[in-house]
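Name: Rve domain-containing protein
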Amino acid sequence: MIPVEIGVQSPRVVHFTEHNNEEGLRCPLDLVEELRDKAAIRVAAYQQRVSRYYNKRVSPRPLRQGDLVLRNSVVADPTGTRGKLAPTWEGPYRIKRVLHPGTFKLETLGGREIARAWNAEHLRKYYQ
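Structure predicted for Rve domain-containing protein:
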């Protein structure tokens, strides 16, 4: 209550009752579960819209075991010792096995396995 309301009675002070005040405070507590459900529905709808927008722009890379690929040379040598005019892609390499969708183990054409796994984002299909 502000000091002015002590001297001049406002409708808020005149019509105040303790019972109505407590009932008014409890009413939103009864609706908390409903508000949470509405928020969860809005979040799910938003996530679906974002997913649809993202997936619309993604181009699938159907790489299978035995395919020949080129790997990104910048990712292969992160130290940056390569020059500006060095080739961007190196290879070809053969996909030895698919670890997960989009993750591959590579081997050279001679059969020597490459130490780390490679993401499809850093690979490009090699056409002969």
